Amino acid sequence: MRLTSQFDTVKITLYCDRLYIHPFCAVKYGMIVAKFGGTAVTPRNLIYLKRIVTEHHLAVVVSAVGREYKDDVKATDLLLQYHESRDQQVWESIADKYRRLAEVNGIAVDVDAMLSDAKSRAALYGKDYCASLGEELSARIVAAFLDADYVEAERVVRFANGDLDVERTFSNVRAAFCDGKRHVMGGFYGGCDGGRRTFSRGGGDVTGAIVAAALDASLYENWTDVNGVCVADPASVHNVSTVPSMSYAEMRMLSLAGAEVLHPDAVTPCETRGIPIKIGNFFRPQSASTLISFCPSVDKLLSVAEKISDSCVETTALHSYPMWQVLQRVSDFARSYTRELNISDRRYTVEPQINIEFRDKVVRVRSSESVLVPLYRALI
Q1: Is residue 310 within 8 Å of residue 317, measured between CB atoms?
Q2: The CATH fold of domain 2-293
Q3: Is 310 left (phi over 0), alpha (psi -120 to 50) or beta?
């Protein structure tokens, strides 16, 4: 059965007998690839991961154990510290995370044997290998938790001459996942001559996208701890809305601008195969989420994202306002945005240094300090 879009000649194949419902599309799907970030792979949150995984999730990609509270240190960062220091206390902090991951969730695996083996290998190989051990340990434990088969990413995702060997990797993925069973694999790393190589931080998203593309999955789910792609950082803006849908190009632009919800390199593999990407909140899987496909967003303000460099703070807004309207709003923002300094009981109003650039549907502001909140308020 096929469904033809009323807007063009693209045809979407309908799979199986189950509907994935979204405000702007209804697509029946078959095999799903799901990637879970580090916050989901913590002792108290792992149960949420298990509640999401269904019979359609035949490929699950996981990150290393993430933060359990605000000032906690991620397992990957601890592994990098251990590589530099070989401090036994640092290793014990890493080991404690994985012991509790298994103990709290009643997972029957020999974690101490896993940790002993990982520690011995950490001493033999380089920085990338040591950093990858967090994902490996997570995947082994989660595989046991889901009663799934473990797939070693080093043997499947392959690098050659510093770059991903796409053809070989795709062939390996298809061979490893061909039996119709559920498999769990660590993200963020792969194998190369002489050891392992990692993607940049957040590269588990890329691993998930590669697996989805290689298997021609019907859907790639990326589960985080926020409700999809928010118009602004929920930590900075109260009660911010979620963008229901956007295009691959729009998502790539937002990721490059500083939105941390999806790695920018995770877009292309799915875009090439036409696989939709769902970004959702594993705490509340039925709440608002974002679907990424070829269809552009219908929202006027898509996102306001921020990244910090050595020289300035760069805030980027992606929108679909008419140019005259966005010029007016940003001009009002620039005139009104000032701050007060209290110096020797006298008050001075000082306008921070701001440089504003307009390009098509993008507004980019370079400033000496964060302007995310006032720019967001000016554009909504």
Answers
A1: no
A2: Carbamate kinase (3.40.1160)
A3: alpha
DSSP class of residue 288?
Answer: -
Strand bridging mode 149-151 / 183-186: parallel
Q: What is the dihedral of CA 104, 133, 71, 238, to 10 degrees?
A: -90
CA angle 27, 45, 84 (to 5 degrees): 110
Instruction: Take residue 369 and report the two structure tokens written for it.
Output: 């300090």
CA–chain centroid gap for 369, Å, is 26
- DSSP-derived letter for residue 242 is B
Output phi, psi for 33, to 5 deg.
Answer: -105, 130
pTM: 0.85
Question: Backbone dihedral region of 195: left (phi > 0), alpha (psi from -120 to 50 degrees) or beta?
Answer: left
Tokens 């990413």, residue located:
153
Residue 194, burial from CB neighbour count under 10 angstroms (0-12, 13-18, 19+) = exposed
For every one of its 380 residues, what pLDDT tens digit does the chain have, with 9 covering 90 and above? Answer: 233 333 232 332 333 333 344 433 434 447 999 999 999 999 999 999 999 999 999 999 999 999 999 899 999 999 999 999 999 999 999 999 999 999 999 999 999 999 999 999 998 999 999 999 999 999 999 999 999 999 999 999 999 998 999 999 999 999 999 888 999 999 999 999 989 999 998 899 999 999 999 999 999 999 999 899 999 888 888 888 999 999 999 998 888 877 778 898 999 999 999 999 999 999 999 999 999 999 999 899 998 988 887 778 889 999 989 989 998 998 888 877 755 444 444 444 455 678 888 888 889 888 888 889 989 999 98
Question: Quick check: 296 and 250 in contact, CB under 8 A?
Answer: yes
Structure tokens at 131: 């950093």
Q: Give me the half-sphere count of Cα atoms (radius 13 Å) on the Cβ side of residue 187.
A: 31
What gap in Å lies between CA 353 and CA 277, rounded to an integer?
Answer: 38
